[in-house]
């Protein structure tokens, strides 16, 4: 098995997973359907949390006991968590600017490449973290700043390469549209080819580097936007992903006990051989996805990044019908 979901807490672990999955889908729907929902979720709440984080770290530097014992200060110390939270939130704000056409930026053609840029940055943050683990614990284990035992080795390298390849699997960078109802930013050329390759790579990243969180951020968090895209929000996967990621990061940063020390806590088996197999699957999936994209682009005689290449496919056509 990939996770330690057995024993006395197994029922709670499954209940926790279902709750996270359902709550993320619900929160995404609230944030995407109205402008007020999006503004509250990705402007107001992050602003409040920023004040909260600064206050905690300032008080801790001054030796305040309440701050030194604060769960966020004790359990969420990695640079990765803060980088991911703010990168995802910036992505959400940019996506809202595009779908609501805020200001000259939201209406400009050049800004349509923003989704590609911010997703690439998010991927590279995880790639750096994978390579960091490889360097710090090659062939052995190392302890993260949060006290988590991590293995370093080829699995990190393979998945880091998979992440880099995944960046080039994003096609039609300027093929960004607002939906007719103005509730979604659509990227029709981001079809199942990219989504599956991304999900496998990102799951592997969480499995390699976040073994105590992967049950939730590696499965529930990835499946929530994918399910929404395939069943009722076609073409909106990247917006679903950004919204659910930012919401989850905010929750996890403030309430780390849910994942780290409660009946809902779930560990991966944290076995380097299992990590290696998962990493190889992610790498192969991304090699195949990029190969398919390049072959398809060559047949059409187009640049797959400057132009959309999935026109005529079921996924693309279903998504483009929603565009304004």
TrEMBL record:
Record's keyword terms, sorted = Membrane, Transmembrane, Transmembrane helix
Is Membrane included in the keywords of this UniProt record? Answer: yes
Keyword Transmembrane helix found: yes
Membrane-crossing ranges are 12-31, 38-59, 79-98, 110-128, 157-178, 185-201, 213-232, 244-264, 276-295
Q: What is this protein called?
A: Uncharacterized protein
